[in-house]
Amino acid sequence: MFYRLSGVRHTSYPAARQLWPIAADRWQVGVLALLALLAPLLISDLYLGSYALPWLIWTAAALSLSLLMGLGGQLHFGFAAVMAIGAYSSIHLARGGVPFEFALLGGGLTAAVIGTAFGAAALRVKGLYLVMATLAMQYLVDWVISNVPAISGGAQATLRTPEVSFLWIPIDSLDARYYVALLWTVLMTLFFLNVKRTSFGRALAAIRDKDFAAAVIGVDPFRTKLTAFMTASFAGGVSGAILAFCYYGAVTPEQFGFNVSIQLVAMVLVGGLGSVVGGYLGAGFVLLVPIVLTNLIAGLGAAGWFSISQNLTAHLPLIFYGGMIIGFLLFEPLGLAKIYDNIRKYFLVWPFRHSGS
Amino acid sequence: MSEPVLQCENINRFFGGIHALKGISAEIQQGEIFGLVGPNGSGKTTLVNCITGFYAPQRGQILFEGKQINGMRPHRIAANGIARTFQNVALFKGMSVLENILMGRHIFMNPNPLAALFYPFWAAKEEVAHRRKVEQIIDLLQLESVRDEHVEVIPLGLQKRVELARALCAEPRMLVLDEPMAGMNQEEKEYMVRFILDAQEELNLSVLIIEHHLDVVTSICDRVLVLNDGNKIAEGPARTAMSDPEVVAAYIGGQAHAA
Questions:
Q1: What's the pLDDT score for residue A155?
Q2: A279-323: per-residue pLDDT in tens?
Q3: A137 touches chain B (CB under 8 A)
Q4: Which of A107, A201, A246, B139 is the most exposed place for a label (fewest CB within 10 A)?
Q5: B115, A198 in Cβ contact below 8 A?
Q6: Which of B49, B50, B51, B75 to mutate to test the interface with A (most CBs of A within 10 A)?
Q7: Domains of chain A, each with CATH number or no CATH
Q8: CB–CB of A200 and B91 under 8 A?
Q9: How far is B155 from chain A (nearest CA, A)?
Q10: Cα separation, A93 vs A102, whole angstroms
Q11: d(CA A154, CA A150)
């Protein structure tokens, strides 16, 4: 088959360490990159704006969280708050006249600083206690944002994003917004892949797998976890800012509520902890399936098969996320990425059942 | 012999009401293989945990190359040149053999997320340089064939060897081995002994080894310290110490004077 390991020989360490050693993988990545670049020409504005664009941005956000949860094993149930901090600070910076590029960086840095401050306090505990501590962050940040008019512009206020330009190109059309989101997601993807093959990523994984063994080989557990909190918060903050500028066009406190945090956790868990493919699959799955589900139920309701209240329809996605998280944790803890990986491995050794060793 | 590389002076460790180490003193000379033996629960691992910083002794002090290390956190002690392995293999399950051994280089590396962001300009060179060093250790311990396997799927004997490789990659001056041969068959034991001796000779290490197989202890250790119930009951050249009546009694039971 075209998809195989045989014939792949490395003669140098850099060659052995490349991201996609198998030719078929490189082709796959190339084709996907090309499709992503040409998407504005290939699909209608409706699909580009309401499916492809949010998918990309939520992928970047899921990858940010996956850095912490998947690679580092540190659960974070307040990640929407981190994104909110990034979104609000970048909007205020941009409104104050700071160029968009620096407003994004500023949003990321603010999120990193606040996220790390919470992390420093929360990291004194592990596991479920860490979940509770990060949950506290979610509610604190939510409360501060909606109760400080200087940030949110008032409890029920909507803050519109100003007109901005990125690298001298005005971000006023859907295509421009799409490319900004694409650039950030690609950057995040490459960063994630590189973290996994460098010492920082290994140290994180070591702490996740066996913290005492990591310490005894020279990894400073607290410092490494805190760096992970900082990095993930920075990336989450920028993702939040991109989400506000490129997708929502305006922010309100409810956009980054607790349910969004759960949605992010669902993306990471369903997609596959610590996997890049998982970030894409998880975000796509969690965004898309509720839409399909809601449409299906609305369709069935309209056809007169059964009727459910508007209220229940609104909560169906949440029920669904909960079910998905439980289901994946029980049956495929490594998520959709593992399913993808199994299929890929099947074709790697095809027509044999498994590799020899 | 020259200066002792590790000095333990009057080490006391309590766990609640249990007095686990009752004033243990020991000196390990540069370049020697020092055995730590004793029945289960005698405090061997507790002593090793004190040396590697898992917990500080409540009384007494530990000097490594003349520098006080008790009270330091484990990663600081690792950076000072002590590496160890664990009784129950403590490898990183999510990683390949190669990545596990690369972890041993951590103290020489720069775990910086920015290095990953600018991988081609920043991290790539470092990674390749350390890979070279890791390959030397892989070569020394003959792990070439399992290099790319996941650590969970290789046999226990090899896992223990990977753990030794990881410790050696940190270029320690002292190696602490907690039962490196537990659960191994005769052949695996012989391999392991050979690798420990090779590594000790080639890398000029001092070795502190906890071991239950008395044949191993008597054949490779220069000196041994025998613990029983937190007390030192014998110390000296392996054969003499192991035939001490009190040691025999502690191992086999019965009265000290019976032997």
A1: 65
A2: 999 999 988 888 887 788 778 777 777 667 777 777 777 787 788
A3: no
A4: B139
A5: yes
A6: B75
A7: 43-349 (1.10.3470)
A8: no
A9: 13
A10: 8
A11: 8
Pairing of strands B67-68, B59-64: antiparallel
Residue A206 touches partner B, C-beta closer than 8 Å = yes
- Report which residue type is found at B136: Q
Q: Strands B59-64 and B231-237: what pairing?
A: unpaired
Domain ranges of chain B: 1-81+172-259, 90-170
Q: Is A17 on the interface with B (CB under 8 A)?
A: yes
Does A18 contact chain B (CB < 8 Å)?
no
Which residue in A has a C-alpha nearest to residue B111's C-alpha?
Answer: A200
Tokens 């979104």 locate to: A87
Residue A67, token pair as written in the block:
């850095």
CATH fold, domain B1-81+172-259, is Rossmann fold (3.40.50)
The predicted-structure confidence for B158-201, as pLDDT tens digits, reads as follows 999 999 999 999 999 999 999 998 888 888 899 999 999 999 99
Among chain B residues, the shortest Cα distance to A198 is held by B116
Q: Three-class SS of residue A165?
A: strand
Interface size between A and B, measured as CB pairs under 8 A: 123
Q: How far apart are CA B159 and CA B155, in angstroms?
A: 6
DSSP symbols for A126-142: -HHHHHHHHHHHHHHHH
Q: Which amino acid belongs to residue A45?
A: D
Going by pLDDT thresholds of 50, 70 and 90, the confidence category of residue B259 is: very low
Q: Smallest Cα–Cα separation from A278: which of A207, A230, A341, A188?
A: A341
What secondary structure letter does DSSP report for B257?
Answer: G
